[in-house]
Amino acid sequence: MNIIINGRAIVVSGRPTVLEAARANGFAIPSLCEHRALLPYGACRICLVEIKGRRGYAPSCSTFVEEGIEVVTESPALAALRRGVLELILAEHPNACLICTEKTSCDEFKSTIRKTGEVTGCVQCPVNGRCELQRVVDMVGVERVPYPARRREGEVLRADPFIDRDNSLCILCGRCVRVCGEVRGASVLTFIARGSETVVGTALGRTMLDSGCQFCGACVDVCPTGSLVERAARPEPRPDKTTRAICPLCSLGCTLDVHSHAGRLLYTVPSEHGPVNKGQGCVKGRFALRAALTGGRRILRPHIRKDGELVPASWEEALYHAAERLKTVPGRASAYVVSAQSPLEEMYLMGKWGAAVGAGACSVASPSSPTDALDKAGVPLDFRLDEIAAARTIVLLGADPAVSHPLVWLEIWKALNGGARLLSVGNLPQSAGRHIDRELRPTPGYEASVLVDIIRVLLGSGIPDAVHNRPGFETFQRSLEGTGARPDPALSSDEIAAFARELTFGAPTVFLVGRDFFVPAAGPETTAAVLDLALAAQARLISPAVSSNGRGWLNIRRIFETEEKPPAEIVKGIRSGAFRALYLAGRAFDLAGARPDVFIGQGPLWNEALLQADIVFPSCTVLETPGSFINAEGRLQSWNETLPPPGESKPGWWITAALARELELQGFRFDSPEDVAAEIRARFAGPVEPAEAPSIRPAQSFLPLPPFGLPMGTDADHPFLLKVSPSPDLYRGHNLAEEIPGLRKIRRTHAVWLNPDDAADAGVRDGDAVLLATAISEIRAEARIHPSIPRRVLRMSARESLSVGVEPARLAKVS
User: Fold this and answer.
1) d(CA 500, CA 267)
2) Picking from 91-105, 249-263, 401-415, which range would have the lowest pLDDT averaged per residue?
3) pLDDT tens-digit profile of 301-351?
4) Whole-number Å distance between alpha carbons of 771 and 216
5) Is the pLDDT reported for residue 109 higher than 80?
6) What does DSSP say about strands 581-585 and 598-603: parallel, antiparallel, or unpaired?
């Protein structure tokens, strides 16, 4: 379309707003309520413009361009109008610093005043220098406020984790309310009261935590003032450097803007330029990353065990000592463990080292993941997040994406806004429970049996040609009758039939598989049942990986022929003497008292396993070395060094290469991670981007169903089934939900969930202290009552003292 702005002819494509068209062509229009992630709102009236031929003034943020319109963005009348509106806004906002004639003379040392509990001026505000209200005041040219100042009532609210709320700084732009509802689908924040008493708050005055907030930080990131701020960043100095990095705390690989000062990490913000997250994030990347990567647990120097104690040593001494010890062990008696949260370059050199010494086994220390099981079954793993948003039916199988993969939940929210239906099969409380249209809650151990029952209903109503003609269908159909799968006593056939009918609601259909079905006790029947149900429903099967580089390991392991074993098998090999040397560069796993003759540990943070090692190498975190991940979609993402390495820590690839050279192994002369990446590309053509425009498609071939074993049962002494799920908050041997107080409050890691009827039978109320007893342990926990938990079932998230899986238990109230 052809339009005119301030007398200049402009051609625009699409149908942007006047504000978007003006800014794209270099015309500055002030605004406060507008944000590129939000729908037009028109609340602040700062962005008013004149449109020739129309009466009055139009808000440019909510007025769309039309062919031939003539817009005026600057005039004496507009300037006076904007100034008057802004003066009214400032009458209810601390304004002394905003209109002070000496504000440019305030020196940077006054930033220490920010440590005060209450903001009465810009120099006390944690967003001083980054505040949009400051910028707009300068643009509009407000020099005085002709109205008596009125402070909005209410103290600074600090009851919630991570976030401080100060209504005295709020200008009621509505950005936080809108991003919480429009973008995140949570609707935790809302406007309270009316008229001059209006404030932003929560329903019934509850805390954000009790209102269902997941603390993604989106409200903080869109707030144009200091009304919503990150508590930990409040007293910090202004950053002097901003760089980009990839978050290592889940498999999606969000791009973060890392703000630092003098080489010290201050805070991280989701980058608007991230190809995956597009400015959105989650509690871990937004608030927990600094605590995860820094603090007193950092390993700052190499260590060698002398006289039973780990003592600091030089790099030369540690590498020489490790090499000499390894030379005494035959190659087949060695095993190594890779972290699924380490960069691709470190993984590759670990695999190359294992192949060079002829290691007998390798392992990736990662929580149980459906991605690995589906990969071995030949299921295509690449996908795009926007495939989920395009679905009409979405089925969650043992998944709670709002917690485990919040960016996946955002795509589900887009689909729901477009009329999609959300179904769930699982026995854990769903964070998005109010959005679920139909749910099945199987008894732990019966998940695969319930999926098989759904398949029988689907096929019983007729077999479409697209299903019948899939490879392996006839073999699968024969196996369907011989599984020995027992029906779940907690679910009726009518419930299963009603759920199966929902799968015909509308295509495209997407199945999202979570790791709750893939705890170690799960067998091959779970993988087969998940895959076959997706094929029977003609659905797209998507499994977001668990760890930041879990997909990377799937690619790397294809290069080398070392046998891969689960960590428990490595421990058994150490006990039996089959493995005499262990090179542990992964997250900690329980050695259960086993101790190899040679134990080399490598990592950025001390954990229980590394404290038992003979030699410990300090490695960098992902912020301190260049590297790359392959995210859950199959997208290769790289980053540069963001922060200087602390102490004497070195990149993981450098450590492994240096150890290999000390062992006189060939092919380990690398000067940079780029050299390692070049060799990876030469040896394996790994994925760089997801497949071009992938369609919603079923997986490749049916799998025959193996015979089902008997599910775990209860007895008179242990009348409950206790199901323990992997924690979504693990990083390099540490459960962040245990170690970061704010995250612990959100996850409620010390809680056991139970059904209301079971709670009534046991005389337990919500919040009571209870004691769980299994055959091998006793756990004190807090009772949390939730109707989605099946009868006679207890649910917990994994803690260091708990194994993941299902076992009988009893429950008693602690007096």
Assistant:
1) 46
2) 91-105
3) 999 999 999 999 999 999 999 999 999 999 899 999 999 999 999 999 999
4) 33
5) no
6) parallel
Please, what is the end-to-end C-alpha distance for the chain in angstroms? 74
pLDDT band at 687 (very low <50, low <70, confident <90, very high): very low
d(CA 3, CA 7): 9
Show the CA angle centred on residue 719, arms to residues 716 and 721, nearest 5°.
140
Please give the backbone phi and psi of residue 728, each rounded to the nearest 5 degrees, phi first: -85, 5
Look at residue 111 in the predicted model and tell me its pLDDT: 54
Rounded Cα distance between 454 and 504, Å, is: 12
Strand 163-165 and strand 228-230: pairing?
antiparallel
| pLDDT mean over 48-71 | 95
CA distances from 440 to 447, 485, 509, 543, 791 (A): 10, 17, 18, 20, 13
CB atoms within 10 A of CB 232: 16
Q: Taking all residues of the chain, what is their mean pLDDT, rounded to a whole number? A: 90
For residues 257 and 248, give the distance between their C-alpha atoms in angstroms, rounded to a whole number.
Answer: 13
* Domains defined for the chain, CATH in brackets: 239-293 (2.20.25.90), 303-366+549-670 (3.40.50.740), 371-542 (3.40.228.10), 720-813 (2.40.40.20)
Q: Which of 517, 695, 13, 588 is nearest to 339 (CA)?
A: 588
User: Which two three-digit tokens encode residue 370?
Assistant: 């459906």
Order the strands of the 598-603 sheet from edge to edge.
Answer: 309-312, 303-306, 615-618, 598-603, 581-585, 334-339, 361-365
Contact indicator for 246, 637 with CB cutoff of 8 Å: yes
Rg over CA atoms, the chain:
29
